[in-house]
Amino acid sequence: MHRTDEPHDVVHLGLPPEAGLEQSLEWAVAHAALAPSEHNSQPWSFRATLRDGAATVDLLLDESRRLEVVDPDQREAVLACGAALLNLRLALAGAGLGVVVVSCPDPERPELLARLSVGGETVERDVDGPLRLAVPLRGTHRGPFESTDVPSELVAHLVAEAALEGAFVAPAEGAAHAEVVRLTVAAEESLWSDAAYRREAAAWSRANSTGQHDGVPGYASGLGAVRSWLQPTLAVATGRPAWSLEEMLEAGYHAPVLLVIGSPDDSRPAVLRAGQAMQRLLLRARAERLAASYLNGSLHMPELRKDLGALVQVPAPQVVVRLGYGELVRPTPRRGVAELLVVEREHSDRRPG
Predict the structure, then answer these.
(1) Where does residue 236 rank: exposed (0-12), middle (13-18), buried (19+ CB within 10 A)?
(2) In a shared domain, residues 173 and 295
């Protein structure tokens, strides 16, 4: 059955000039749904309240999609929600809607990560148009990069782009580059020896023909139909990821650029900012024909994460981005807009005089 609310399709269809506020919100949430997340778990949901031509939109952490083993504190889930928030902001600007964002507005509701006040004024459309247009093109490039070097001025531009969101960004160069890769491989060896980790990874693995709207199909790692179907069983039984550790080592060493994005601490507002910084960097990179993936293994292990932070002088590293030139990748499945967005309407109490 064709899904009319599939986020890639909603984004590509575009926003009609006559679109009202509710349709604009649906279009914006479709952009948000295309953000990256660990295991493509998509740990976000949205609740909009419409009143008098304006709206309040809450970004919520979806507790039902928690990754108990790899992300017990939900740090990476909040990071992913930050990336979704950046996409949402770009799309609302693309619709010409003014937005005010308050991060984590209610200490009594930890699942409420941000509240957006939308409307009430119009703004210049698509002030970050190239970034918004890159949203449906961004994907995790798990294969090797082209051998072309990334110009240093472009790297500096990407670092400055991420810094606009208030995050720390540190290039890992020379000996630091090699050490980041070493920490990653050491972490992956340890993680894949853990049966609980393997079971969780397998639970989010999908066959290429999957009808599910989340998780990682085998084609994202270059697996054929049969291997993609067998991959969950093989991962649990053999303790081997779709990518071998040798391939990971090779890909890490030959990545033209490694960037570590972090924050002052692991508070939810700080991690949410880092997620927005990560996504801004990833979208700018895609707009410049760069592809990206991650070397996050060391971030799943407290001691190695501490070593990584000391290495690049970032207090709380949140993500390691691997960048180089590469082609577009096939998109992974996404939950539909109708599943992600709840819309409520409040009626004004005012009576005509």
Answers:
(1) middle
(2) yes
pTM > 0.85: yes or no? yes
**pLDDT tens, residue by residue, 214-251:** 999 999 888 788 676 766 666 666 666 655 556 656 66
> Residue 102 phi/psi, 5° resolution?
-115, 120
188 and 261: one domain? Answer: yes
Please check whether residues 295 and 186 belong to one and the same domain. yes
Please state, in angstroms and rounded to a whole number, the distance separating the CA atoms of residues 204 and 52: 42
In angstroms, the CA 9 to CA 64 distance is: 26
- Tell me whether strands 257-263 and 316-325 are parallel, antiparallel or unpaired: antiparallel
**Number of Cβ atoms within 10 Å of the Cβ of 224:** 10
Tell me if residue 325 falls in helix, strand or coil: strand
Output the pLDDT for position 352. 47
Q: How far apart are CA 348 and CA 310, in angstroms?
A: 54
Same domain, 175 and 260: yes
Q: Given strand 168-171, what is the order of strands in its sheet?
A: 168-171, 257-263, 316-325, 290-294
Give strand pairing partners of 97.
122
Written as six digits, the tokens of 256 are 């033209």
Domain carrying residue 246: 152-193+239-325
User: Tokens 């790692």 sit at which residue?
Assistant: 221
**CATH code for the domain in which residue 321 is found:** 3.40.109.10
Distance from chain centroid for Cα 207: 22
Rounded CA separation 185/3 (Å): 40
Residue-wise pLDDT tens digits, 30-40:
999 999 999 99
Distance, CA of 190 to CA of 192 (rounded, Å)? 6
